[in-house]
Amino acid sequence: MVVLVYSRTGAKRFLSHIDVLRDFARIVRRADIPVGYSAGFNPHALLFFSPPTPVGIASVAEYAAIDTELSPEETLARFNAAVSEDMRASAAYRVLKNPNLAGRIAAADHVFPFPADAYDISRGLELSYVKKGTPVREDVSDRIFAAGNRDGKLLLRLASGNVTLRADRVFDALKSALGTDALVTDVVKTEQYVREGGVLIPAREALEKRN
Amino acid sequence: MENFADRFFRLLPQAEKPSRYTGGEWNAVKKTGPVRARFCLCFPDLYEIGMSNLGMQILYSELNAREDFACERCYAPAEDMAALLKADSVPLLSLETATPLRDFDVVGFSVQFELLYTGILYMLDLAGIPFRAAERGDDYPILLAGGPCAVNPEPFADFFDCIVIGEGEGVDAAVLEIVAEGKEKGWSKREMLRRMKSIAGVYVPSMREKGEKVVKAVYRDFENAPYPTRPVVANTEAVHDRAVIELYRGCASGCRFCQAGYYYRPIRERSPERCAAQAKEIVRNTGHGEIAMCSLSTGDYSGLVKLMDELRDFVHEKRVNLSLPSLRLSSFSGDIAQESRKSSLTFAPEAGTQRLRNVINKNVTDEEIDNVAKAFEAGYDSVKLYFMLGLPTETDEDIAGIAAICSRLRELYFATRGKRGPNISVSCAVFIPKPCTPFQWEAQITFEEMLRKQNYLRGLLRRIKGVSFSWHGAESSVLEAALARGDKRLSYVIERAYALGAKFDSWSEKFDKEAWWRAFEDCGLDMREFTGEWKEDAELPWGFIDTGVSKRYLLSQRRLAYEGVTTRSCREGCNGCGANKLGRCTIEW
User: Fold this and answer.
1) What is the residue range of A200's domain?
2) Measured by CB atoms within 10 angstroms of the end CB, which terminus of chain B is less buried, N or C?
3) Does the interface predicted TM-score (ipTM) exceed 0.95?
C-alpha cells in the first residue's frame, strides 16, 4: 500500500469530500495504477483518505492510501501525470497495511489570512453558527491545540478526525472579530497530525517511521 | 475588457455548490493565446445535467481541435449563484477563462427539449444580452442555437441570429469560419449571416424568404465523424458520469410517435472496431468506471456482439462496467445481458396491448414480452418498463393491458427464479404529438383526461405486488406539447413566462404552472390551439424544414396507424421514407 500526500488548491479546493472520493477512483484508473478492489456486489477500489477538508479551504497536506503493489516513486509519478496542477502529490510512502488515516488523524495545521498576532490562544474561542437550521454556540478552546506564526500569518493547530474543529467556522469567528474582508479560500491546511504516545506528530513522520 | 475572474472567485465560497462554476476539469481546454474566433457553448440547465450531454462534448472537442478556434462552456447557474452574480453585477462568465458571454464572437445554445426554453432567456439575462436578435446590434455576439428542438425552431427563432437544423458536426465549424473571416475582413453581422445561410442546415430567421426550405444537416461519414475521446470529466457528480460511445444515429424501428427516430434518419452505424477503440481510449483518458452505449435502440446495433467481444477483456482488466440502456424487447439477448452488471433492465413496450402497439408501430409482441424470462434467468431481479398514456386511439382496455403485462412478468419471474418476486417499476409519460413524426397532426389528450388515465392505471397497479408507478406531470406535458408545435407567437409567451418567474421548468419542483398559464393568457393565446388536432393540409410552423422524410410518407404512416398495420423495421428492407436523399443508410439487409 502506498500513501500519497497531495494538494487541493486552485479550483480543486471547491471539491466536496465525496467528489474527491469519486475523482480518485477515476484518477487511479486513468493513471494506470493497479489497485486492489473490494469483493462485494459493487466492487470499489481500495482507497482510504484522511478526514475531510471543508469545501473552499485549500490544502497542501491531504493523505490518501492506495492499495497498490507499485513503488511509491512510480505511484507518485503516475498520479501526477493524471491530475491537474491543483491536485499534485508531493510525497509517497510505502506502508504495510492501511494506516487508518481517517481514524488516526487527530489534528491539522491551518494558516489563516490574518496577522499572526491577531489571536491570543489564552483567550479561548467561542463559535456561533447554524447547524441544520438550529443556531449553535459552543466553546471550542479545547480543540485549538497550538497557535503560531507562519510567515507573519496566523497558524492554528485544530482538532481533526473523530473530534474535529472545522477551520471554516474558526475563520468565520475570527473574521467577524477582526472585521477584515479576508476570504475563506485563503485558508490553507498545511499539515495533519496523528497522536502517538500522547504526542501529536506530523503524519508524514509517522509514515516515514513505518518504512 | 474588465477582468471579472477575481470578483467571481470571491463569490464562490457563498455558492451552494461552487464546483459547478470553477471549470478546470480534467480534459477541459483553456486557450489564452490569440485565436481567430471564440465560441461559447451554452447549456440552459445546471452543470450536472449539461456535463452529461454528448452533443456538447462532441462540439467542444471538434471546435477545440482547430488551433485557430477556441471553444469554451457555460451552464445555467443555480438560482443561488444567479442571485450572487446579480447582486455583485458580475455577468455570466465562461468556465474556461471567465470571459463574459457577450465578449465572445459566437454564443451557441444546445436546446435539448422544450422545457429548457426559459433557460435560454435566464442565461441571456444574466449575461446582459438582449433577448431578441432584432434588438442586438453588431456589438453583440452572434447567437446560435442547435439541438433536437431545432426540428421546430419557430418558438425560439426570434431570439437567435442563426439556428443549426440537424447535426452540428461540421456546421458549427463552418459558421465559426465565416465569423473568423468576417472579423478579418470587417464584415457586418448581417453580411456574416447572409453567408451562413448558404451552409446546409443553417436557418437565419431574420432572412427567411417566402417558400424557402431549410434542409437538415446530416454528417454523412458517420464512421469518421469527429468524436471526443478526451471528454471533459465533471468536477462534481454529473447525471451520467461515464464513457459514452455512440453506436449509430437514427433508428430502424419507425415508432410513429418518436421524433428522434424520424429526425436522426438516415441510419448510420459506426463499426464495432471503432466504437471499441473509442471506448478504450475514453476510459484511458478519463478513468471513467462505466462505458455506456448510446443509440436509440442499442439492442438493434448490428455490431453489438462484435463490440462486446472487443471490449470483454478490457472491461475485466480495467474493472469497468458496461451498461446497456434502451434495449428493445424483441432484440433482448440473454447472452448480452450476461456481460453487464445485473442491476436492472429497462424496456419500453410503450403500450399495454398488441392492438395499440401496432398503432404506434412498436413492433413488440406479447411473445417477445415473454422474452424477459431470459433476463430473469440471467440473474436480473428488477425490470423498468416505460409506457405512454394518451396515444392515438387508446382505450381503457389498453391501459389495463399495462397492468396485465406487470402480472405476466411476475408469473414469468416465479416460473424461473426464486420466491421473493421481482421489482417492477412502471414509468408513464403522456403522449406529446411532436413535429416531423406521423403523429404530428394528432391531438394531445386533455389535462383532465391525463389525470383520469393516470388515476385509473395507479388503481390497477396498486393491486399487483412489487410494482412501483411513476408518471410525468400532466401540466408540464401540456406545456411541452404546446411549445413543441408552437409558432413564432410563442416567443412572446416564453418571454412573458420568464418575466413572471418561470425557469428550470423541467425540474418538477420548479415548474411554475401559474406563470405559464398566465403568460399564454397575457399574450392572448389559447394553449388548445397548439395541443388539439390539426388538419392534414394545415400549414405547419416547421413546414419549411426538410428532414428528408417526405410528408407523403408521414401521412401514409398515419393512415397505417389507424388501420392498425405495422411497418417493417428498416433492417428488413427500405420503406422509402425519403431520408436517404440526405445520406445513405449504412445498415444492410
Assistant:
1) 104-205
2) N
3) no
User: Rounded to an integer, what distance in angstroms lies between the CA atom of residue B578 and that of residue B589?
Assistant: 17
A79-94 b/e (C-beta count within 10 Å ≥ 16 → b): bbebbeebbbbeebbb
Q: Any CB–CB contact under 8 A between A83 and chain B?
A: yes
Its sign, for the CA torsion B55, B584, B297, B317, is negative
Q: What is the pTM of this model?
A: 0.94
Which of B21, B286, B323 to mutate: most A Cβ within 10 Å? B286
- Average pLDDT of the segment spanning A158-174: 94
Residues A147 and A57 in one domain: no
pLDDT 10s digits, B343-360: 677 788 999 999 999 999
Judge if A138 and A199 occupy the same domain.
Answer: yes
Query: Which of A103, A127, A143 is where one domain is finished?
Result: A103
Determine the residue among A20, A30, A66 to mutate to test chain B binding: the one whose Cβ has the most chain B Cβ atoms within 10 Å: A30
If one counts the domains in chain A, the total is 2
- Test B319 with A43 for CB contact under 8 angstroms: yes
Digit-coded pLDDT (tens) for B11-57: 999 999 999 999 999 999 999 999 999 999 999 999 999 999 999 99
Q: Which residues contact B416 (CB under 8 A, 6 or more apart)?
A: B373, B376, B377
Distance CA B294, CA B406 (A): 27
Q: Is pLDDT above 70 for B451?
A: yes
In the stretch 124-143 of chain A, residues with CB closer than 8 A to chain B read: none
CA A152/CA A125 separation, integer angstroms: 21
For chain B, positions 4-33, list CB contacts with chain A under 8 A: 9-10, 12-13, 18-19, 22-24, 26
Q: Which residue has the higher pLDDT, B336 or B202?
A: B202
What is the share, in percent, of chain B residues with pLDDT greater than 70? 96
Of chain A, the percentage scoring pLDDT greater than 90 comes to 78
- Cell representation of residue B139: 456589438
Q: Which residue of B has its CA nearest to A43?
A: B319
Which residue in B26, B96, B239, B381 has the most chain A C-beta atoms within 10 A of its own C-beta, making it the best mutation to test that interface? B26
Average pLDDT over chain A, rounded to an integer: 93
* pLDDT over 90 at B291, yes or no: yes
